[in-house]
Amino acid sequence: MSPSLVVLPNDLISEVLSFLDVKFLVRLRCVSKSWKILISDPAFVKLHIKRSPSRNPLFTLITHHITEIPGESPYGSNDEWDLDYCIVPCPIHCLIENPSFSLSVDDYYHLNDKGCSRIVGSCNGLICLAGDSFTSGFQEYWFRLWNLATRTTSKKIGYFCNLGDSRLSFMFGCDNTRHL
Amino acid sequence: MIIPDTCKVVVSRYIHDQLTSEVKVLSFSDNVWRNIESFPTIPLHLDYRGLGHSWYDGAFFSGTLNWLAIHNNTWYNGYDVKDFTVEQFVIVSLDLGTVTYNHYWLPRGFNEVPPIEPNVGVLGDCLCFSYSYKVTYLIIWQMKKFGVEESWTQFLKISYQNLQLDYDFSWNALDYHLRFIPLLLYGEGNTLILHSNKEREAILYNWKDNRVVRTGVTVHKTIIDNRTNNYLCWHLAKGHVESLVSIC
Lengths: 180, 248
Hints:
Chain A is an alpha+beta fold. Chain A contains six helices and nine strands, in the order ααααββαβββββββα. The longest helix of chain A has 9 residues, at 42-50.
């Protein structure tokens, strides 16, 4: 008897796929047009987030990198310092099983390359970054979203200027109740 | 497909002489800033920003941003909390859906103002509140049912002795400088990952069998150059989920 083709309903496929890691799903998007549509469907994306507790728990580590840029003076008086941060996702079980390890930071995780200098917060797998620059008496700020798993960043948005040196507090979050 | 339309940035500027804050919200769906009303309290952690990151300005939990504040007061220098009373501490909670505030009282068992600011965070899928007590204990409470003040439950009371701290306890100002931040729970909640500002590494504390392990992480960039110093900011470590949310 030749094997017959079994057609699974889409609901069942998305149920099964929702337990998989992002990395794997990104590859599965190339399997067929229908899978691509399914995996990109907002309803599936939400279901996949809902399933996060069943996957390996992760955490993000922030690393700080200070590079000395020597100036022309031999005495170091005009040396400059380049400051950068990285945000690195890691499975928590790796830390528990092996608390001493060497963390090699992938170049992709640097904030400066994204035109940003600080982390505002994270939610639903998205990191919100902020950048700023000081020009003609104004401090200008902008924001950018970053999905670490799919390796995509949004364009810079939310430009605003702040006068003077008053301290600003930045926070980030998503309104989960309405859409999840 | 754009899901991040539910994502928002909140920027607040505290105005000292008016005892109020200017608050505005950016919605990623339309890239528009909207001013919202302020909540008449003084936010804590004004001067405590890990290296310019605002990770601890607010704890995001279940569609809300939560932070610790002082109400009924005229002045706060940004770091000294010992002149306040426990009744003045409050958690302010901003609902990102309705853009309205709630405030929550702290657990009744919180009956003595700690020498250094307490901390609000998320631990084990609950909003949590932690502080040091009499240079002896770290106390952590969990709000078991979010938004219900009666559901505050003492989760852990950890003796400093159990954490095997080798700090100089003869220095009587230690308590004003020692801050713990509970970072994560792991393994059915038995292992607490904890940061102490007196240590470079994190503390892994299994409170079930009272075992303590310290991490030993070295950081380097993929391209190693000897002009760069690399540090790990344990106090900024946070739980993370991976998602397919598209932002292009």
